[in-house]
């Protein structure tokens, strides 16, 4: 359980950092402004209530990524613990695979 928690925590940190880097690249390429302009062109000028840029702000994207990382941390830790328990029971019943190395 401890190892699964530590690995899940590391994966969560990597996910948040990767999200920040990906958001930075996409923002610098101007993808968000192009999508916003495309939606404004499709909807028209009479209803300017739609602002795509407010939904893809850096703080919102990182917050969502952190939330997903926390949920992932809990789920991965629980699943790894349950799977280790099931493996240990199965290995105790079946006997598992034993490998003996000898020097001759």
Count of alpha/pi helices: 3
**Percent of residues in β-strands:** under 5%
Radius of gyration from the CA trace? 24 Å
The unreliable regions are none
Quick one: biggest sheet? none
Identify the overall geometry: elongated
Mean pLDDT: 88
Q: Structural class, from helix and strand content?
A: mainly alpha
Termini gap: 38 Å
Run of helices and strands: HHH
Counted beta strands: 0
The helicity comes to: over 70%
Structure description:
The chain has 104 residues and is mostly helical. It is 74% helix and 0% strand. 2% of the residues are buried.
Key features of this structure:
104 residues; single chain
Give me the secondary-structure topology:
Elements lengths: L1 H27 L2 H13 L14 H37 L10
Outline of the structure:
This protein is mostly helical. The protein is 74% helix and 0% strand. The chain is elongated, with a radius of gyration of 24 Å.
């Amino acid at each position: 359980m401890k190892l699964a928690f530590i690995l899940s925590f590391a994966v969560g940190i990597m996910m948040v950092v990767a999200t920040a880097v990906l958001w930075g690249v996409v923002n610098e390429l101007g993808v968000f402004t192009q999508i916003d302009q495309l939606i404004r062109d499709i909807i028209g000028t009479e209803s300017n209530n739609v602002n795509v840029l407010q939904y893809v702000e850096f703080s919102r994207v990182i917050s969502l990524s952190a939330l997903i990382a926390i949920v992932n941390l809990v789920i991965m830790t629980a699943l790894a613990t349950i799977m280790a328990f099931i493996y240990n029971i199965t290995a105790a019943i079946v006997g598992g695979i034993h490998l003996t190395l000898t020097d001759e």
